[in-house]
């Protein structure tokens, strides 16, 4: 029978799988950058090779992904402990939001070499904004819960 | 908050302990402590009713509004 505990467990497993994927990605970044250099034929403001900028972009985004996944892990751990509307969880959402916005910024810079990369930049910024709104909702919920807890 | 809880004063006047009052009102001693120390953000009418009944007093004897401007 599917229940909220199993759902939470699935989320934690997926986060773990994603963490492993990010770790594995570290070794393949140069190959991915090399492959992109070969296949990309787009336009950009800056010409020349995209190998180094792509490598830098991927490594920076990987760091941001590690940050976001670590915060996700903390968030899920707190939720499984029954601590949902707490300050720490709001901070987790804020960090994830910033990680996405920064990733969007990094892809935005990379888009100077290839305009096509404005697309992932747009999606990252959009996701960051959604997370930010969620963070604001969570912040309010924490306040309401605190008020409820201190109502005698 | 400009609302001051004078519950401890009233309890001292009636010579009633925290545990006794908590038992009568039907709240935990920890919650009563939250109320006494002024950490509470709100109080239910039902709780206030029971406290007033237990201490034989008016809500105004327990709660006091202090003008923040006058505080300094």
Number of domains of chain B: 1
Overall average residue pLDDT of chain A? 91
Could you name the CATH topology of chain B?
A: 434 Repressor (Amino-terminal Domain)
List SSEs of chain B in N-to-C order.
EHHHHHEH
Count of separate DSSP helical elements of chain B: 6
Summed up, the helix count of chain A is 4
CATH level-four homologous superfamily name of chain B: lambda repressor-like DNA-binding domains
For the record, the CATH class of chain B is Mainly Alpha
Query: Per CATH, which architecture of chain B?
Result: Orthogonal Bundle
Task: Tell me what the structure shows.
- The complex is a heterodimer of chains A (152) and B (72).
- With 152 residues, chain A is mainly alpha-helical.
- Chain A has four helices and no strands.
- The longest helix of chain A has 36 residues, at 4-39.
- The radius of gyration of chain A is 19 Å and the shape is elongated.
- The model of chain A has no long low-confidence stretch (mean pLDDT 91).
- Chain B has one domain: Orthogonal Bundle (434 Repressor (Amino-terminal Domain)), CATH 1.10.260.
- Chain B contains six helices and two strands.
- Chain B has helices at 7-14, 18-25, 29-36, 45-55, 59-62, 68-71; strands at residues 3-5, 63-65.
- The interface between A and B is small, with 5 and 12 residues.
């Amino acid at each position: 029978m599917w229940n909220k505990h199993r759902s939470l467990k699935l989320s934690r497993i997926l986060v773990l799988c994603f963490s492993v994927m990010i770790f594995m990605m570290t070794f393949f970044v140069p190959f991915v950058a090399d492959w992109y250099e070969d296949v990309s034929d787009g336009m950009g403001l800056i010409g020349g090779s995209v190998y180094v900028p792509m490598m830098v972009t991927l490594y920076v985004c990987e760091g941001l992904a590690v940050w976001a996944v670590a915060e996700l892990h903390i968030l899920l751990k707190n939720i499984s402990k029954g601590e949902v509307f707490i300050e720490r969880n709001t901070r987790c959402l804020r960090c994830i939001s910033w990680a996405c916005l920064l990733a969007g910024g990094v892809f935005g810079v990379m888009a100077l070499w290839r305009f096509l990369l404005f697309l992932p930049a747009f999606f990252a910024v959009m996701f960051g904004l959604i997370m930010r709104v969620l963070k604001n909702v969570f912040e309010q919920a924490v306040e309401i819960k605190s008020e409820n807890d201190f109502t005698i | 908050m400009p609302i001051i809880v004078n519950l401890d004063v009233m309890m001292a006047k009636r010579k009633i302990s925290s545990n006794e009052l908590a038992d009568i009102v039907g709240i935990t001693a920890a919650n009563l402590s939250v109320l006494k120390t002024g950490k509470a953000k709100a109080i239910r009418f039902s709780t206030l009713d029971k406290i007033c009944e237990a201490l034989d007093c008016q809500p105004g004897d327990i709660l006091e509004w202090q003008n923040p401007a006058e505080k300094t």
